[in-house]
Write a structure and sequence with these properties.
mainly alpha; 6 helices; rod-shaped
């Protein structure tokens, strides 16, 4: 019975030499400072590069860790698009072996990450659409203000012309009166 309970405590698959699950790895990433994150990014990029150049079997651990680095907001390589693309690639039907050895807990973690990335991208797209709409509204408002300013300018020009005509008429009347008085 004790053995059964102890084995039930270990719910995560160990993926690397340090024995941490991907969820634990993500939590560790959150605790790192900027310099440490930069070093971790370099390390995982080098691991992916070395796997690409070697002819040995494919180990997805470095790619999955790079995916987690792309999805971490404080990461120097934070990029929701890149994270989503990599997750989709690792999850694709042609490449379903990337997550073949993960536990149900980790499967839930990656499902949650997938949903979170979708939400981030959706929110970003909504924000961009809102910014575009605000820009269009601002441009429309500026055009309206410009049109109103032109109308006011035209009205002022017409009033000036009318005042000039009135002044001319008054001068001619004044001259006529002066001639008559002489």
């Amino acid at each position: 019975m004790v053995l059964l309970l102890l084995s039930g405590c270990e719910l995560t698959t160990k993926h690397d030499k340090s024995g941490t699950s991907y969820g634990e790895y993500y939590l560790e990433l959150q605790r790192l400072n900027e310099t440490q994150l930069t070093e971790e990014v370099s390390k995982q990029q080098a691991n992916v590069e070395s796997q690409t150049n070697s002819n040995s079997g494919v180990n997805y651990d470095a790619q999955i860790k790079l995916l987690l680095l792309y999805s971490l907001p404080k990461s120097p390589i934070y990029n929701s698009f890149q994270a989503k693309a990599l997750l989709n690639d690792l999850n694709s039907e042609d490449n379903n072996s990337a997550f073949a050895d993960i536990t149900p807990n980790e499967e839930a973690f990656f499902s949650l990450l997938h949903d979170q990335l979708n939400q981030r991208l959706l929110m970003r797209n909504r924000l961009l659409a809102l910014q575009k709409e605000q820009l269009n509204d601002h441009q429309h408002s500026a055009k309206q203000q410009q049109h109103i300013a032109k109308q006011q300018q035209q009205q002022l020009i017409e009033q000036i012309k009318l005042l000039e005509q009135t002044i001319k008429q008054l001068k001619s009347i004044e001259q006529a009166i002066d001639k008559r008085d002489q």
